[in-house]
Amino acid sequence: MTDQRTLTNQQILAVCRSNWEYRGIDDRSLREMLDELSAHLEDAVAAGRTPRDVVGNDVTEFAASWARARAPFTRRLLRSAAMLCFVIGWLTAATCLLRWTTQRAVSVDDITFWTVVAAVTVAWELRRGSLGIGRSLAVALVVGLPAVLLAQWLGGDGTLFTVPLWAAPVLLLPGVPYAVADIRARRNTAPLADE
Questions:
Q1: From CA 103, how far away is CA 82, in angstroms rounded?
Q2: Could you tell me which residues are beta bridge partners of residue 104?
Q3: Hey, is 71 helix, strand or coil?
Q4: Does pTM surpass 0.90?
């Protein structure tokens, strides 16, 4: 492990950037945090202090605590739950519309698939940040599909209950603000990537 006293400002910024990217901090917030930390480090040098005076003894812990402060656990948990409902609402609506029915039959494999995928997704997002579409599909294939096959083998595929079509908008509602915010954030960071 590198001695904290020998780290330059650029190395500290690189460690923090890596930690924040690992945790899924969005690009705009990442730039703001790096700019703010850079200013603090430059101010410390100008005042005759060391980078250690700014970040403490452990740069990684400093970065992790700042990321947690930026997106507290309760807010991340609320977002994950709302987005899970949002996805289930879309799937319910899509299934009903594709099959021209007003009800969605839910079987053991559906429950198993969504429970496993939700658990992995929520654990990932709480620990590291947003999965994104590609990783979500990978989780569904790598973890969800084997769980469904095992559930079919063990429990069969009978219908447990049905979900009416009107439940889809109710499930969608909590996730709409988060989905809109994600879309806006992506649109706002697109020009930043070109700079």
A1: 22
A2: 163
A3: coil
A4: no
